[in-house]
Design brief:
By secondary structure, this protein is an alpha+beta fold. The chain is built from eight helices and 29 strands. Strand 1 and strand 2 form a beta hairpin.
């Protein structure tokens, strides 16, 4: 039998979980459980952990308050719960409906935020495009004013010229004036259409902006959602269409690209017409030729008879970025003016150097330039100097081939491998002190030779590369070495070239050797040349032949296409 508890006070709510008789007075009513608990029972049944931490507790409510009452929201439902948050009695259905309503409110708020953000974004785009249209509209109107000014100026100049040409000129005046007015009318008609189109677009955009801004001020979410979608779609369509409607303004539409000059046409009054700027000429690179210090440039022009003169511009080319800077500046060019033919030879250029060329066709109405063209000079040509050849070497009549005199070689012993016991060499007939140069050496079966450079002060009796004033690529049968200042660097694996290419960049301080057929680099020296250098060759068997005056090959020149 349950123990008896203290007698409860009259009218109080009793604990519905106690086993005492009578039960203890309730301390709280759990709205979630729909049960009233005393303090000990509440601690026992609702520990401080999930899911009990989510139960709602309220002040004790008599059962009579819940039993028999109808829900104010649902007439057929009985009150079963008490909502402490709203301080009202509710049924289970109200609880479910309340949750559903919360979800609806959250979804509505989410949709509101989404559509509002979309509309604001599209509105910002439309405002930006509208501003661009207004700028374009201003440019169009300014172009219209320029057309008026320039057309009036040309008509005035036409009148001044025609007053000097008496009767025949007077007859042609009206004809040319009609041409001007027709051109003016055509341009103004096109510009008027563009202006009207821009104005219509601006007006529609302004009205739509006003509607969108008014919609954004709508505080009622339901009303906002009724109009947000349609307004957003219209704003998006207006933004997209405004991009298409942006007109492209051509400077030539300003009617300022022709001039009137009748100095030559006075004898041909019947064919009198206005003069326009000539079309841009085109460089004919396939016809251009070069030497080590000259380049002959050829070009062609479709408007050759309307060209008064040509202007040739050129500058050293260091790369595509250099071309861009040159085209934006007029101070970096060498200029040759008043050329009357479609070709010109530029003298005094640097050997083995790339240049960029532009040609401008000019008359009294204006000028137009060709696209930039890239041309380069050849290397310094040279031959072998027979006076510098060793007495046991024989130089050909054209001074391009050197061979070992086999008759004299039988009487002497071959020197040791790469030793300095005899410099069987011959020098070129030039000394190079600037620029970039390239030549090739054909190996006429020789397996014992050296190819390189030397200062004029290099000792004649020493093997090239044996000292600090000469550099050489050497072969002794199957062994290949690069030599300078008596130090050797073996080339491994041993190459098998039939022709050796030599690239000298005097100003850049580089001497490089290549397999001329495969473009494989064999070796390179870094040297700060302090004196003029002379090409030097040595041969102990067979012969060597030099090919000079060549342009630096593109694959060794690091050339890139022009922008």
């Amino acid at each position: 039998m349950a123990a008896a508890g203290p007698a409860p006070s009259p009218g109080c709510v009793l604990c519905q979980f106690c086993e005492l008789d009578p039960a203890r007075e309730a301390a709280k009513t759990c709205v979630t459980c729909a049960v009233s608990y005393c303090a000990p029972c509440l601690r026992a049944t609702h520990p401080n952990k999930w899911p009990f931490t989510g139960h709602r507790l309220a002040e004790p409510m008599p059962d009579a308050h819940l039993r028999g009452l109808q829900c104010p929201e649902h007439e057929d439902e009985r009150v079963s719960l008490y909502c402490a948050a709203d301080d009202q009695l509710i049924c289970a259905l109200c609880k479910l409906v309340g949750r559903h309503r919360d979800h609806q409110v959250a979804a509505l708020s989410e949709r509101y935020d989404k559509w509002k953000q979309t509309l604001e974004t599209n509105l910002a785009h439309l405002v930006k495009r509208n501003a661009e249209l207004e700028v374009q509209l201003g440019k169009l109107m300014q172009t219209c004013q320029l057309v008026e000014v320039h057309a009036a100026r040309q008509e005035a100049r036409l009148g001044e010229e025609c007053d000097l040409l008496v009767a025949v000129v007077q007859q042609r005046r009206e004809a040319i004036g009609a041409k001007i007015r027709e051109g003016k009318a055509v341009r103004l008609r096109k510009l008027a259409q563009q202006i009207a189109s821009c104005k219509q677009c601006v007006e529609r955009s302004a009205a739509l902006i006003a509607q969108a801004e008014l919609s954004l001020k709508e505080a009622d979410h339901a009303r906002f959602l009724q109009t947000a979608k349609s307004i957003t779609e219209r704003v998006s369509m207006a933004t997209a269409s405004s991009q298409v409607l942006l007109p492209e303004i051509n400077v030539s539409d300003a009617f300022d690209s022709f001039a009137l000059d009748f100095s030559r046409e006075k004898k041909l009054l019947e064919s009198l017409d206005y003069l326009t700027a000539p079309g841009p000429p085109a460089l004919r690179e396939e016809l251009c030729t070069a030497s080590h210090d000259t380049i002959t440039v050829h070009w062609a022009s479709d408007d050759e008879f309307s060209v008064g003169s040509y202007e040739l511009r050129y500058s050293v080319l260091t790369g595509p970025a250099n071309v861009a800077s040159l085209c934006s500046s007029a101070d970096s060019w060498m200029i040759v003016p008043n050329i009357r033919q479609n070709h010109y030879t530029v003298h005094g250029l640097q050997s083995g150097t790339r240049y960029v060329f532009l040609v401008r066709a000019i008359n009294q109405a204006g000028s137009r330039s060709s696209e930039p063209g890239r041309l380069k000079t050849n290397s310094q040509p040279f031959k072998l100097d027979p006076k510098s050849a060793h007495r046991k070497l024989k130089v050909s009549h054209d001074n391009l081939t050197v061979e070992r005199d086999e008759a004299s070689s039988k009487k002497s012993h071959a020197p040791e491998r790469f030793s300095g016991q005899g410099s069987y060499g011959v020098a070129g007939n030039v000394f190079i002190d600037s620029g970039r140069h390239y030549w090739e050496v054909v190996l006429g079966g020789s397996t014992w030779f050296a190819v390189g450079l030397a200062y004029k002060s290099a000792p004649r009796h020493e093997w090239v590369g044996k000292n600090a004033v000469s550099w050489a690529l050497c072969r002794c049968h199957n062994a290949w070495v690069a030599r300078h200042d008596g130090k050797e660097v073996a080339l491994e694996p041993a190459p098998h070239p039939r022709r050796v290419g030599v690239l000298l960049d005097y100003d850049g301080g580089c001497l490089a050797f290549y397999d001329a057929l495969s473009a494989l680099r064999l070796h390179a020296f870094d040297a700060a040349f302090a004196q003029p250098v002379c090409p030097t060759f040595a041969v102990w068997n067979k012969c060597l032949t030099v090919i000079t005056g060549l342009p630096v090959p593109d694959h060794l020149d690091g050339t890139e296409p022009l922008p």
